[in-house]
Structures are given as structure tokens and as C-alpha cells.
Amino acid sequence: MKYHHEKIEAKWQQYWAENQTFAASNNSDKPKYFVLDMFPYPSGAGLHVGHPLGYIASDIVARYKRHQGFNVLHPQGYDSFGLPAEQYAIQTGQHPEKTTRENITRYREQLDKIGFSFDWSREVRTSNPDYYKHTQWIFIQLFESWYNKNTDKAENISTLIELFSSEGNAKVNAVCDENIASFTATEWNAFSSEQQQQILLQYRLTYLAETEVNWCPALGTVLANDEIVNGVSERGGHPVIRKKMTQWSMRISAYAERLLQGLETIDWSESIKESQRNWIGKSVGAAVTFKVKNHDEVIDVFTTRPDTIFGVTFMTLAPEHELVAKITTLEQKAAVDAYIEATAKRSERERMADVKTISGVFTGAYAEHPFTKEAIPVWIGDYVLAGYGTGAVMAVPCGDERDYAFANFFKGTNGMPTIKNIFNQDISEAAFNEKSGFEFVDSDFLNGLDYKSGTKKIIEELEKIGAGNAKVNYRLRDAVFSRQRYWGEPFPVYYVNGLPQMIDKKHLPIVLPEVEKYLPTEDGQPPLGNATTWAWDSVQCSVVSNQLIDDVTIFPLELNTMPGWAGSSWYWMRYMDAHNENEFASADALKYWENVDLYIGGSEHATGHLLYSRFWNKFLKDRGYAPTEEPFKKLINQGMILGMSAFVYRSEDSKILYSKGLIKDKNVHPIHVDLSCINDITNELDIEKFKAHPLYTDYANAEFVLEDGKYIVGREVEKMSKSKYNVVNPDDICEEYGADTLRLYEMFLGPLEQAKPWNTAGITGVSGFLKKLWRLYFDDNGSVIKDEEPTAEMYKSLHKTIKKVTEDIENFSFNTSVSQFMICVNELQQLKCNHRAILEPLAIIVSPYAPHIAEELWSGLGHEGSISTVAFPKFEEKYLVESEKEYPVSFNGKMRFTIKLPLDLTAAQIEEIVMADERTQNQLQGRTPNKVIIVPGKIINLVG
């Protein structure tokens, strides 16, 4: 009876599907365990062998937990809105829904072949209306909420309206827009409905505002900072500029401190936590106001070093700061305008990262020092960002390296005074940026003070003259929530006199309309501007033709769509109750599952998805919809599986291709080779296949210079990518070696969190191991299982493995488990073990890693049903306790033979047995040893 992986795997995959083996229950007496993979986007390229790495790890844990008696929720679905599908639609004219559906079908086929224990009955797709109606509902809840600093949570907007109606806004302690005008209760009650709505927009957790955004003209949409790499769009590499647009935004900044503190309560890697801490960017300092000379304007700054205020030499505004246009003089206008235009082409991330380039322009305007009344020149510079702090910096070159470099770069030019030094330290070569080891000089009432006492004193004095106060600042900015594209969640919003109105929950979802073109309209509106039926009838409560818009009862709908992170910011909760039509999840389901126990996915989402998810979860907790503060208890970031690229080497000036060993001292150009053209084990190029490949038709007549009659390609480890032709399809591995081999091999490659190269040549060893495992249970004639009592050595081998595998899964060290399986099978083979008492538990502990073969072995042992919920074997220490010791017996330090003795013998008893042994007598030849050295459990040595 041979091991036919293809038949076994197809059989059990069908069994699992038909029997809903892995369906979780929302009503169970078992303890719950929720294990989740990061939401995949179904790209047209399908999966390569790097993609399943995290899925295999999570599946091992899910299966192990079922064996341990947990009710395991291990769902899967698709983050199916996104720019790639829309770009493909623009290029081909195919509806994004069609290509997305086809891609999902392909993904599902590939995932099923690998044998994951997903609960497919709970599958979700963010692009399905029955899913995104709940995303629309959450958006409405955010719109209907404000953040009360007194209670430190989000509350219904009705509580704010009550305060306005009874007290006005003077005492309201809220997260809101800056510089909101004060009003009394009487004034509020006298405002028109439109005036009240305008004011409430300044407090709502999602709001409309004119915002500086990353605009990509080629893609026709706004991009998030994490969608931009090196100043261009991650998708397509298109230029990105800064532009002001009216956008929906989310007040994530309201949660800055809670997002920071929550990191202390979750089991995430320190590197991810640190990324989030840096992104949130908490700073303690002071807000300071500088008047602008000859203007009614003021410049507000936030500084962590208010104690250095007497060292302010100049001020710098972000080029996009709203004051720039108001205060720039006529003489400086041309230079300022040119600088602003140039800066708009650089992303914020690029500007933050570029610490070497120094650039700026003097505006011609001056600010007034709040204490000395001296004139301070106002510059603009792209190292200051409009969205960080106030978009303005009080520059103290004597105490800050960047200000020091800026002042020295523009030294002697119009608008750049000599650097003021306020420290009793030398700054001739560099700024002094320490917070100790100095006293203030030339600093008026701060002279002689140090950092701590100076900071306290300056804040007191700023408050006295009304020019500043102590403040905590965060780098975290409100998240732009609008996208100018088609393939995304429609907003449940229509406009009355330009003011947003929410559509009632009972009329959701507002379904994405059909359009002829997926590009922005000719007059620059988003793609939904192409829709002809995209207006809201407020009487009939339905979407109707645009031609019926009368701004009386029928109004225009929002033309933007939500960003890619909308649907993925709450999806784990939908899995808890995926078929609930009325709510995103019932209170009972949410209470039972609470949150995700184990989340596995890439570290690239540290400041995108992972931060937004925490924000939405905290908001839903505030409003009574989510049971926990944090969504994901434990997070593991899997490493990347790298591709082993192959290269041929073309001479620079001709079509001669040199084999790898012949390129030394030659001027050659490496060319990526599709892996289908090489022998992955010998690295030999199949020249005829290479010539016939459509990618390499230019080399059909090339000259190949061989070594020993072969063309050997070069190999290099790189990111697995279609563009490098080094992608390995998991389908091919499953077909040739089996899914269980793929699963074991991916775990065997190395620690889960580390990057590791794929090498198909190594997979044969894992394949051979499974065949060895099979032969413990079956020979050519069928089962070889015995019901005899196993030997102590057999038990020892089994329990070593139970102990190791249990510890490894608990510690997520899956690679060393595979090694232990191999050791165990080799030992049992040598012991000729076919014993049921050993092989039954062995099948169970192998099951999380190689589930198909484990199911077949379990069935072959005579059991009905699936192995998936059979209790995991428990490690018993007694089987590893040694009762005997094989002693080396030495004569004058040279070992001559070994003897196995019980470990509980005394030294005298050991000596008596050894001296009586025939082999000892042969060595001594009648002599009596001078000394017998015995250390029980270690050595026996006869001397003389």
C-alpha cells in the first residue's frame, strides 16, 4: 500500500468541505480561540509559495488548539476593494467586480489545495454590499459622535448638542478643530439649522475639511502616506504632489494617548510597538504665539524646548501654511511661489526622510518676540510640515542641529540674522542640544537657570502675558478618508446646500452604481461623477436619476469612495457573526469571541492597518458595540520567503551569453531567467527552452559559451516577484510533492519571523520523510500495526517528540518541530516500531503540520471520522527518566568496552559487577588494579 499524496489530499479536502469539519460554533461550552490571518487582497497573480507561510503557521496553531479542546474560529475572506482591480478595469474595460470575483475563485482553489482548516462558512468580502452596508453604518456612527475629553471617550453627538443648548461651548472639553468661535446657549439656540450643522462638523469624529493631501494625477486619487514610496505611488510608480482638497477625515488624533497606552497591554513585537509609538509621536512642551509685525495675524508654534525662546533667531513655516500667502511681501512673492510649486512635488515622507538637503525662502515678513519685542524674520522651508504640530517652527540654531545647518546655509543673506547663543557653551562648530550641563545666558529672567527650572519659569511667564501655555502634542494626524476612485465603499451621504446628511440605517446599503468609465470625469470629478443614477430621493428614500435633482427633496450623493482601509478596520468582528443581516455582529457573538487571540501578518502594516484597526475598535468600544479595547491580543509578523533568482550573463557589446563560471574579468550584463528554463537542482540552463521562451526571443540566435558542456546560471536571493521571474507556484509543489510536503517544508525553512530563501532542491528531504512516516504504518500489503506493548525506547522517542512539539507550537517555533518529527521517525524505524500505542499519538501530533496524511493514518488505524478534534497526547516525564546507564569502562584512561547497569547501584555494587565481568578479567590478565575510580552515572576507570 503506497503513499499517493494526490489521492489522499483530494479525499480529505472533500471530506472536510462536505462535513464542515472546521466550522466554529457561537454557542459552545468549550473555551474559545480566535486565530486570524491578515486580510488578503485577491490579486490577479494568485499565490506564490511566499504567501502561505503565515497561513500555514496560523493553521498549525488552529489545529493544535482544536486538539486541545478549544472551539476554534479560524476564518478567511477577502479585502476585495482596491486600486489594482480599478486600474485593470481602466485598462481593459472589465468591471472590477468581475475581475475581483475571478481572482477570488483562483485564490480559493489555491488555498483549498494546501489544506487549510478555514471556516469557509463565515467567508466575507469587503466589496459585497451585505458586508459594506455595515462599514457604511460604522461611518455614520463616527459622524454621529464626538470625543469628550472629560470622560476620555467618544459619545453620541446628541450629548454635545444638549451641552450647547444649555451651556454654550465655552466649557466644552472636546477634541475638535482649532480656533472655534465661542458662543452661549442663547446664541446656539438662535442659530439656524445650517449654522448648527457647520459648528457640529468641527466636533464630529468624521468630518469634512480642506486638507493637504497626497494627490496622484496619474491615478486620479488621493494616496495615504503608506501608499507612497520614495516620492512616487507604490502602485505604478507615478509622481505624487501635495494639494489642498475638501476631504472626509477621521479624528484618529482623539485616540492618540489611548493608542499609545494600549500598546502596553498587548503581546506584540517591540519593533511594531516602537513603529506605532514613533508614528503617534508624543511630545511634551508648550504652545507659543508670535504676532506678525504689520499684520493682524499670529503664528502659533509648538515647541518641546520653550526654555530656549530667547535664542529664537528666525521662524520657519511649512510652504503650504495658510499664512504664507497673507504675509509674503511683494518683493519675495516670486521666489516664494516658485519654492511652493517645487515643494508640492515632494511627498511628506520624502521631506521627512531628507535630512541632508537644505532649502528655504525668506517671506519678507517678521514676527515679534513675545518678550523682547524684537523682529524675527519668517522663512518657509520644506523640512517643516503643515500637518505636523502647527506647521510652524521657532528656530533656535544654537540648540538644534537642523536649525543650525539652516542658519549657516543662509548666513549673510537677506532675512537671516547672526545666530543667538543663549548657553554658556561653545557653539562655533555645532549646536548644543543637551538638556543638562549648562546655564542660560542672554535670556533675561531665565539667566542662570537650567533646563528644568527654565522650562517651568518660561511657561509661567508665557501664561502671564497670554502668549502661551503648557501642551502635549502628537505627531499623529487625522486620517484622510476620501478616495477619488470607483472601486471602494460608497459613502452613505447626500448633500443639502453643501452640508452632508447621513442616510438612515434602514436604507443601507447604498450600492455602488454602474458607470461607463472608471476614470475621473472631464471636469475633474471622481469616477462616480460618471454615474447617471446617483442622487438621493429623501422622500422615497432611494437612489434615483441625477436628472431629478431639485435640491428640494432630491439631492446629490457623495462622489468620493472610502479608502482601502475602511473594510479592513473592523472585519475580524464580522467573522464572529458573518450572516447577521441586521448588525455587524450580535452582542452575544461579540461577547463570546471578544477579540482575536492570535493575529499573523506582515510588519509592513505597522502604521496603516494595525493603527486604524485599533482606532476603530476603541471607538466601537466607546459606543458600546465592541467588548474589548484592543482587537488583537497577540501579533506575529511572519518573515518573507525570498526567491532564488537565476541569471544568464550577456556580453555588453554582443549577444554572447557566458556561463556563470566564465564571467570573471568580462564586461557582462545579468539577465533574469524564468525558473521554468533551468534545472533548479543543478542550476543548468535548458538552452532550447530558453530560446523558445517568449521572453527571450531576442536570444534565439545568441552564442552560448559553456563550461564542461553545460550553461550554468548564476543564482541570487531576492524578493519573490513576477518581475524577477523567480516566483514558485504552490500548485506545482502540491502537484509534484503534495500539500503536506509544502506545509512542512515552509515551516522547516527557518524561524517564522525571519526572512529565508526558497530552494526547491531541499524539498525532496521533506517528501522522503513523509514516505518514511507512511512506512511505519503500512507496507505494500496494507497495515502493519501491532497491538503489542512498546519498548521503553519507543515510548522515550514518542514522548520526546510530544514534549518538543507541544513546546514549539506554544512558542511558535515551528521549524524545530519538523526536525524533531524526522528524528522520531528515524528512531522508530530503527526500533522496528509498528506499535499502535506509539503510532496513534504520533499521527495526532503530526496532524497540525501534515493534516492529510495524518487523517489517512488515523483512518488506517481503524478510526471513524476526522482526527482534527482528537485529544492531543500529553507528555509524561516518566518515559524520559533514565533507569539504566551505558558506562564506558576504561583501563588507565582508555575505554575498552561498555556495560549497561541500573542507575540506582552504589559505587561498591558497580565495582563488584565490573570486576566479575569476563572482559575485565581478560584486560587485567590476573593483575589487581591499584585504584578503581567509579562515579555513579558517569565513569568507570581501572588504574594500574
From TrEMBL:
Q: What is this protein called?
A: Leucine--tRNA ligase
The sequence motif named 'KMSKS' region is recorded at 719-723
Stated EC number for the protein is: 6.1.1.4
Q: What HAMAP family does the annotation carry?
A: Leu_tRNA_synth_B
Q: Does the keyword Nuclease apply?
A: no
Q: Which domain of life is it from?
A: Bacteria
Q: Where is the Methionyl/Valyl/Leucyl/Isoleucyl-tRNA synthetase anticodon-binding domain?
A: 794-906
Looking up InterPro entries in the UniProt record yields:
aa-tRNA-synth_I_CS (IPR001412), aa-tRNA-synth_Ia (IPR002300), Leu-tRNA-ligase (IPR002302), Leu_tRNA-synth_edit (IPR025709), M/V/L/I-tRNA-synth_anticd-bd (IPR013155), Rossmann-like_a/b/a_fold (IPR014729), tRNAsynth_Ia_anticodon-bd (IPR009080), Val/Leu/Ile-tRNA-synth_edit (IPR009008)
Q: Which GO terms describe its cellular component?
A: cytosol
Q: Which family does it belong to?
A: Belongs to the class-I aminoacyl-tRNA synthetase family.
Domain Leucyl-tRNA synthetase editing residue range list = 277-463
- Please give the NCBIfam families that the UniProt record associates with this protein: leuS_bact
Looking at the record, the residues that make up the Aminoacyl-tRNA synthetase class Ia domain are 11-144, 713-745
What species was this sequence derived from?
A: Flavobacterium urocaniciphilum
Tagged with keyword Aminoacyl-tRNA synthetase: yes
Q: Which GO terms describe its molecular function?
A: aminoacyl-tRNA deacylase activity; ATP binding; leucine-tRNA ligase activity
The record's SUPFAM superfamilies line, in alphabetical order, gives: Anticodon-binding domain of a subclass of class I aminoacyl-tRNA synthetases (SSF47323), Nucleotidylyl transferase (SSF52374), ValRS/IleRS/LeuRS editing domain (SSF50677)
What is this enzyme's catalytic activity, as reactions?
tRNA(Leu) + L-leucine + ATP = L-leucyl-tRNA(Leu) + AMP + diphosphate
